[in-house]
Structures are given as C-alpha cells and as structure tokens.
Design a protein that fits this description.
The chain is mostly beta strands and 205 residues long. The chain is built from 3 helices and 12 strands, in the order βββαβαββββαββββ.
C-alpha cells in the first residue's frame, strides 16, 4: 500500500478546533499524482512505487519512453512499500490515502538565506560590547585549538551558506483532507517556500 504523495506548499493559516483551541496550519496542494513505475523484488531487487507530479513542457526522449501515454511530469519520487497488491502503473494517487489524525513526515527544501554569520546561522551570542572590543560584536571568537592538533576541527560551527537544504518535519498531525479540492491541512509549519515541492508520507512507528 502506498503511504506517500507529492504536493506543493500553498501557505499557512489558522483554524479553531472543536474545543476552541487555535491551531496554526499549513495548506498543501497534494496530488493528484500518477504511478509511473512499479518496482518489484524480482526485477529491481527491491519493492517501490514511483509517482509523478506536476506539469512540464519539454522532456527528453528517454523520459518520453518512460512515461508512455502518461504525463509528462515535472517531479518523480519513489516510495518503498511492503505490499504491491492493488498498485498498478497509471493509477492515480490522491489525498484520500490520508485521514484526520494521521501522523505524517513532510520533506521539503528549506528557504535559502545565502551567506550568513554565526549569530544568524548558529545563534551565537557574539562578543563583548565594551572594554575596547569595537569589532567583535558578531564575530565567532577563537576557532583554533593551540599547537595540538594545530588545525581547526572538522564540523566547527562557522559562517557559511545557510538554508536551501533538504529538511524533514516529523510526526505532524493531519487535521483535514479535502478530496474535492485536493488539499491537505497539516498542523504546524512545514519546510520550504510557497509553491515549493513537498513530500508527505505516513510516519513509521
């Protein structure tokens, strides 16, 4: 059984629950997706379902042969499955695979912030603001370790490129699944910018 779908982040809003609690929610345009390939243990060495999402004008000839009469699709993603029963090439995948109360993991690409210093990137407190320290306010401080080992340790937190990375928000709650409009309402924030691609899959465990 397929446990995931592709979509795009439409934005955030808020919603009251029945007990009057106000929740921040993310609205995702989930699907519809199409099963473009079914991978089996005998042929491919593992079981997975590949689905396509989004429109694209031009594709290569190999991709045309791969899609056949379907598509073309802008995005392709694979989902590992334990059971391939009822899964066929060309089948549609919609938000109906989710129900209110389901726990899901949402994966997206975080917003790129460009080159950022340690205060913004790693929440350093900065240097002293007085006693003659006029140029240390947002500096990282010492990064060395003396004569031994005589180099900067790998992985040391420094200034650098911030954001634009694959991020997964885990165990978020589905508040509603609107089949008519293909919308998925998820409690809380998910990674990515508006109209960015997100992968929604049911949480394991």
């Amino acid at each position: 059984m397929l446990k995931g779908i592709l979509g795009k982040k439409l934005g955030m809003t808020q919603r009251f629950s029945e007990d009057g609690t106000l929740h921040a929610i993310t609205v995702i345009q989930a699907g519809p997706c199409t099963v473009t390939q079914v991978k089996t243990l005998e042929k491919d060495g593992y079981q997975a379902v590949q689905i396509g999402y989004g429109d694209v004008k031009r594709i290569s000839k190999p991709m045309k042969g791969h899609f056949g009469s379907m598509g073309p699709f802008r995005h392709l993603r694979e989902f590992r499955v334990d059971d391939l029963e009822g899964v066929e090439r060309g089948a549609r995948v919609e938000v109906t695979i989710f129900e209110p109360g389901d726990k899901v993991d949402v994966t997206g690409v975080s917003k790129g912030k460009g080159f950022a210093g340690v205060v913004k990137r790693h929440h350093f407190s900065g240097g002293p603001k007085t006693h003659g320290q006029s140029d240390r306010h947002r500096a990282p401080g010492s990064v060395g370790a003396g004569t031994t080992p005589g180099r900067v340790t790998k992985g040391f937190r420094m200034a650098g490129h911030m954001g634009n990375r694959r991020v997964t928000a885990r165990k978020l709650t589905v508040l509603a699944a609107d089949q008519e409009r293909g919308l998925l309402l998820i409690k809380g924030a998910v990674p990515g910018a508006l109209n960015g691609l997100v992968v929604v899959r049911k949480s394991e465990g």
